[in-house]
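Bit of a strange request maybe. I'm writing a small parser for structure token strings and I need a real example to test against, not something I typed by hand. Could someone generate the tokens for this chain?
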Amino acid sequence: MEYPPAAAWLAEAAGTAPHEGSGYLLRVILIVMVVGCVLTGWFLLRGYSRKDD
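Reply from user aminoacidic:
Good idea to test on real output. This should exercise your parser:
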């Protein structure tokens, strides 16, 4: 399977080969979940650092 030029760097950075099957999809899902959890935690916790005057 040939990757389009825009996605070739992502596939290379993830270290995936076209014959790996669902491993690529699971890796992407895990990365998105971790980034989403970090952003959600930051969004929820940033309100606690504000001081009410």
